[in-house]
Amino acid sequence: MLGLLFVLASCNNEVDFDWQPKVVSPLVNGELGLFQQPDVKNISDDFLITATNVFGNQRGTVNSLPAIGPLNFPLEPTKISDNDEIDEVGLSNVKISLTITNRMPVTMASGAVITLTSAGASTAFAETTIGQDIAPGTSQTFTISQSSGVLKNTFVVSLNNFKTLATNDPVTITDNSQVSMKLQFDPPTVDYIQFIAGKSSTFDTQFDFDAGLDQQNTEDVSGDLVVDLKNQVAIDFNLNINFLDASGGILGTVFPGGLELSANQSVVRRIGGQTIINNLQAAKKIQVKAVFNPTIANRKLTSDAKILYKLIGDLQFKVKVK
């Protein structure tokens, strides 16, 4: 609990006593969940097999159309995270939904194979075979389930053994005679995230803050800010805490140049001076920011990776009595 020493000025008498009113709350107690920062929970993409891919330059109405295929389509690469800091993720309880919509004037035949393969891998991360025909103007959704696996940040979806059924009826081929496919991961269990060695990764969190030390109600503020940090990760970090204004602009920083926080290290720092006091009075938000430089031997975060932080105001001031 935070104990603050208040000096009340009232009736020309000064009374010292310990008090913790709700209006003054320079105690912040939280955690920076490093593992949850990269966006690996919402993995999705959309793909299109164009009319040219299937029918070439043929357009217009034809009296009949022979079967087409088999054709193989390696589609555009998909990324788990666009920031390119992630090398791979370990996943479990994987469930992938694939919705195929047939806008062609002919039936898409069963037997097509959809594979997801990590960049550079020789075996598929996941694979399914479409077991039914998809008629013109209809959609079908298929599900791939997998207990666990490793997926690189960049992976490729392929649609192989693609075929159409022959028709003896007239059909019209246009530029919109396409097949679309939507891929969507249900939020998987992420067991670990491995980052790219040599590429700096940044994690941060921001939250609203009001120390209750506005100049209309308090004066002669002095004391220290006590910062209590616990790095519960087997990785070294450079950590900083920034005081922000209401729009997110930086007013000041607790550790100029950052604090080097070693793996699994606990640190308590007491910071005094008028600059810290001014920042506590003016800040409307606080940012906790951690940066690490992955190496080949030290670049993996597991699901319990976090940094705990406490900001404690050990302050003395006068409350203005009106």
UniProtKB/TrEMBL annotation:
Protein's recorded name: Uncharacterized protein
Provide the species name.
Answer: Microscilla marina ATCC 23134
